[in-house]
Design brief:
Elements lengths: L12 H19 L6 H18 L4 H35 L1 H12 L5 H16 L2 H19 L3 H18 L4 H10 L3 H27 L9 H14 L8 H11 L4 H19 L4 H9 L9 H7 L8 H19 L2 H10 L5 H19 L2 H18 L4 H13 L9 H10 L3 H4 L4 H16 L17
Length: 471
């Protein structure tokens, strides 16, 4: 006879905290001090978590299933990541991004750069529903402009990231914005309107700060000879034409008409490849190489070569490896019940409105730090805390607002998250360098906490089915 399967043990809080402590030490010491690549450290954290899983009598098949399920949820984002690599390489080869950099250097005043970068990225993300696409295209261009103008890259990247994620979370085309109400049991349009109470003041306050910071920048910080050389080099190596903006138009069209994102990116990249052949006289193998391994500039001017030598699918490989290892860790944490134990203990403090709000914020941030996933940072707290909101007669749109603004929007500020690594790999600015300057990302969390203590904008539950508009 086959022996009965071993009864799985329920982990205690002390055991559940071991993987978090281990990951914190590994990343804090290994990545922060010794600069060891996060992939190896995350594998080590996953290994420690797996050992705990065996002690709790979970089989390898159980934990492997958790890993696969976790990665499966991230596959759409991973596929988009590949397409963004193709997009960047093809847009540079076509001359689209170099043209934006060229005219940006000529037109944008250093004093208003941060405000302009944040505002433009906000509008673009709002229209396209993708923060990653905005950062990977316009973000790359704005970083190039910042380098040319002598703007510190930390504040520049912070303004780009804050703007891109503000537009993303307010866009009805965004997968994150659509997922939050699904996880919480609310509906999309009530969710977006409810976020305006916290997102708008956070965004405006950030713009004001960027404006005053920008007053300290002046064109005198950039040597005119350097600026002239960059402009002259870009102009001499690329043929600019208004038609080079067509790849951007394609991406915007697909977003505005709610068509699938990935086909839009691929069509845009194909069009950019054709424009590269027509206007830049590039060969088909050169265009294919730009899409695969990235555009390799050889202008003879180091500053320009460093500026536009980027993109390609291969540039995303390290990012994807971090994603796989991070989701492996998160998958084991979920499958073994370790993450649930932590969140369940946190939920015990949720007995008043202010404590419910703080509990939700903490749960979303903890999940974001453990999993590194915008999706999971909303799904897990949303599913666990939805009954609390129903019991306390609070509208589900309160929950969906908090999990998106405390989870999904915090993820890009976590160095080992997929978003954090993607942003660093795409625009070349470390997470810790832009984190202090992404004001809107964490201002919204502070505002939500204030709302929790005061009860302001904490909407009561008015109907049973909150998936209907007007709940």
């Amino acid at each position: 006879m086959t022996p009965p399967p071993a009864t799985k043990k329920t982990p205690g809080l002390g055991v559940a905290l071991i993987p978090l402590i281990a990951m914190g030490l590994l990343l804090g010491i290994g990545y922060g001090i010794y600069h060891i690549r996060p992939q190896v450290l995350l594998v080590a954290a996953a290994f420690i978590t797996g050992c705990l899983g065996f002690i709790l009598r979970f089989s390898w098949q159980d934990m492997e299933r958790g890993i696969v399920d976790s990665i499966h949820k991230a596959m759409p984002a991973i596929l988009i990541m590949l397409c963004v690599g193709i997009l960047i390489g093809s847009w540079i080869a076509a001359g689209t991004i170099p043209m934006v950099i060229y005219y940006g250097l000529k037109l944008i005043s250093p004093k208003y750069f941060l405000v302009t970068a944040c505002f433009v990225c906000s509008l673009t993300s709002l229209a396209t529903g993708t923060s990653w696409g905005t950062i990977g295209t316009l973000g790359v261009a704005f970083i190039g402009i910042a380098m040319g103008l002598g703007i510190p890259l930390g504040p520049a990247a912070g303004a780009i990231v804050a703007g891109a994620y503000f537009g993303d979370k307010m866009s009805p085309f965004s997968d994150v914005t659509n997922l939050a109400p699904v996880a919480a049991g609310s509906n999309l349009f009530d969710h977006i309107k409810h976020m305006l109470w916290s997102a708008t003041p956070a965004w405006l306050l950030g713009l004001v700060i960027y404006f005053f910071i920008g007053l300290g920048y002046s064109s005198e910080k950039v040597e005119s000879e350097t600026m002239t050389l960059i402009l002259k080099t870009l102009k001499s190596h690329f043929h600019f034409n208004l038609l080079l903006l067509l790849p951007m138009v394609v991406v915007f069209y697909f977003a505005a008409t709610k068509k699938p994102t990935i086909p839009g990116m691929l069509i845009s990249s194909l069009l950019a490849g054709v424009l590269a052949v027509i206007f830049q006289k590039a060969s088909i193998p050169e265009v294919a190489a730009a899409m695969n391994t990235g555009y390799q500039a050889n202008t003879g001017v180091k500053a320009v070569d460093e500026l536009i030598s980027r993109g390609g699918m291969m540039s995303m490989m390290e990012t994807q490896l971090v994603a796989f290892t991070a989701f492996s860790f998160g998958g084991i944490m979920q499958k073994t019940g370790l993450l649930s134990v932590i969140l369940d203990r946190v939920m015990k403090f949720a007995n008043k409105v202010w404590s419910i709000v703080l509990t939700t914020i903490a749960s979303a941030i903890v999940t974001a730090m453990v999993t590194g996933s915008s999706y999971l940072s909303m799904i897990i707290p949303g599913e666990l805390l939805a009954p609390i909101y129903r019991e306390k007669k609070l509208a589900a749109k309160n929950l969906s607002r908090i999990i998106e603004e405390s989870g999904a929007i915090i993820v890009p500020l976590i160095p080992w998250s997929m978003a954090g690594v993607y942003i660093t790999g795409t625009i070349g600015v470390p997470t810790f360098s832009y984190l202090p300057w992404a004001f809107m990302n964490y201002f919204a969390v502070i505002i939500l906490a204030i709302f929790g203590f005061t009860g302001f904008t904490m909407a009561p539950r008015i109907r049973e089915d909150e998936t209907q508009i007007g709940s």
